[in-house]
User: Fold this.
Amino acid sequence: MILLTGATGKTGSATAIELSNLKVPFRALIRSEEKRDEIEALGGEVIIGSAENRETIDQAMMGIEKLLIILPNCENQLEMEMQLVDSAKAEGVKQIVYMSSVEADEECTSPIPKLHWDTEVYIKDSGLQWTMIKPNFYMQNFIGSAKTIVEQNKFFLPMSEGKTGMIDTRDVGKVIAKVLSEEGHEGQSYQITGPEILSFYNVAEKFSSVLKREVLYVDMPMDAYKNILSQFLTNQWHLDSVIDLFAGIAEGGIEYNTDTFEELIGTPPRSLEDFIEEHRNLYTA
Assistant:
């Protein structure tokens, strides 16, 4: 049996769907009773509770062979992830699959990648088998720009000339489901990127090409963008950490991509054009 955390988020839900398609049984630890039906519709078992509660975690961990850790970025994330690892070890779990990020390494200083790296180290030191999943910038981040693309044919971000190999969360879910449903991935750190490296000006060109109208990328000053983002991210640690990530992209980006997805899945990852076409209705008045 597999235990999923984060099963109602974008990547976790994509993983749950893929496991369901593969007829692989799983259990999900989720916070909201309102989300129970969507997990059970996929054939999953549900435990209602929080990753902050050790008693609930231990209950969810009973009979589990593989654990997927995906938690939202927050100030106490490391403590929760360490608690999940401790419970997994105590309950005899064989393998942990951890959702990290491509930016996470021993030299990183940005808060969110540093947190991921600290969890990676803790997992490796636990003595359990492990696999790290390290995705890049998500295409789904552009869903938040749909309103301004419809109304102004513009999207606003503070990324300057930064570039990155954007990936669809559903493709990350495919990789995770593969790792969870078969053997042979132990001790691997899989860096998952999209098919090409793009600047955000390139992204605007892709939107223009698919939507058949000019869409522009407006490079905002970081302070101005932070002021807007503060209306949605009210936790100061989270706000500062996200801005720090964006500043890293603006200052140089993550200018590499990998063939890992195609090597594992056998098909290329979704292109940004495919993503825009699939979500055309969001971007069209």
Notes: The longest strand covers residues 129-135.
